[in-house]
């Protein structure tokens, strides 16, 4: 009995203390888990022998997070500093993903020219893009289907359409400049006073207005009111680093993204239906009409929901890329008024009417303006909007010997499940390839003996090897050091449209105002879109920068709108 009592007392004791001490232990361990994880992570990197077939790994303290802060802060500076330590090929950890970077021309070729069996864009991007674009298009379908969809899109970017778009874009830009208060004030006063405008806000508005008027079509332009703008903003909120990490989270931004996707898709589907029923207001060429009636190789018609989702994809693909490029171009022109003046003189020489006013260029004329072309080309060299191009590795992939192989007997292998990353943004400012690489010098593109011309000609569409991936022959160009529009099967098909849009936007602005930026061009900020103010001066219409906007027949602006 005594024994029983003793043992039960012991048991009671044990029951009383065990949970408490276990809790303390658990708490202690819990508090220390991050510390232990960091220590183990550091020891692993410092002490474990490196697999000779693995590319060198970028040192990082915190597991999972890896080099996310460094890469996120300034990707180009991060990649360049890693390159100094490790060479052209190295691996870094980005929020749980292993990214193997391949830099330089050979690196661009390795990633952009990789075979689909090994390197997949859809596996890299789909979790980010499908919730925004919608199902069955772009990266939510096999690669061959995307290639067909790109061919369909090219119908909407035909020469005839481009010719028609010139006037529409010019009309939108001139109308915006007349309507936008920061420009209008000076025009109304008709004096050479300096004012300011928020360059990114302006280029974002102009980009969406011009894209909606042209590619997107009349119905979208007519609905480009607060509702559509809000839908766009909510959808755009689905393109953040958080979305890249987690496709779905119970957060308001995700719910907004999903609601906006549904509403926007419905909006486009209704346009398609109205057009099919003949009740549409549209009578102009646009992308929707080009997509309607397209048929896949297997005989299936492009369904309405796919047309809608492709339209959303195009809206998103062209918006940030073109608006950021236009903003950088205007900032540099404000910083280098001599180049702005050359650009303006080019317009005067080419498009002066007998009465001194300036006429609209044709599409063909726009394509043969060397100064305008070099301004866009140089802006895209220094500020390509897409700095990293990523592919998912579907099967172990050997890095070719030309890319810093450790020895002739062993080669780096990027294992299945990793990602590879090319950065044309790095090769485009590589000091070994470009003279004064960090300087914005458009004339490097017009100097016939200049190194930019030579490098570009070597890989350009006219001279390079041509390949048809299913959407028309394009130059292979995967090894070019200049690739603002990418290369290979995922190459941009919006390039011609972007050049047209940027060309008209920049030339219309230069015809209308002078710009200065007192503090110089700001450095890139990869966290937020920059919103620096640029000083502008409306040029007195009675003096030399005379520009009479084309008579705008569809100019609906009334004083009440201003
Ligand atoms: C300055 C403007 C633009 C720049 C710098 C740009 C850049 C790029 C780049 C670098 C890629 C390749 C992405 C990759 O390989 O992962 C790409 C692909 C693409 N872009 Fe653009 N883009 C611009 C404008 C546009 C416009 C206006 C459109 C639509 C009209 C567009 C539609 C596309 C499409 C459909 C793809 C193909 C995606 C694929 O095949 O995976 N882009 N763009």
From TrEMBL:
Keyword Methyltransferase: no
Record key words, sorted: Heme, Iron, Membrane, Metal-binding, Monooxygenase, Oxidoreductase, Transmembrane, Transmembrane helix
Domain of life of the native organism: Eukaryota
Compositionally biased spans, kind Basic and acidic residues: 543-562
Gene3D superfamilies: Cytochrome P450
GO molecular function, one term: iron ion binding
Binding residue positions for heme: 492
Region of interest called Disordered, as start-end residue ranges on this chain: 540-562
UniProt keyword annotation of Ubl conjugation present: no
Gene Ontology CC entries for this record: membrane
Annotated compartments: Membrane
Transmembrane segment boundaries: 22-43
Cofactor(s) this protein requires: heme
Coiled-coil ranges per UniProt: none
Alphabetized SUPFAM superfamilies for the sequence: Cytochrome P450
Primary localization: membrane
Family the entry assigns: Belongs to the cytochrome P450 family.
Protein name according to UniProt: Cytochrome P450
Organism ancestry: Eukaryota, Fungi, Dikarya, Basidiomycota, Agaricomycotina
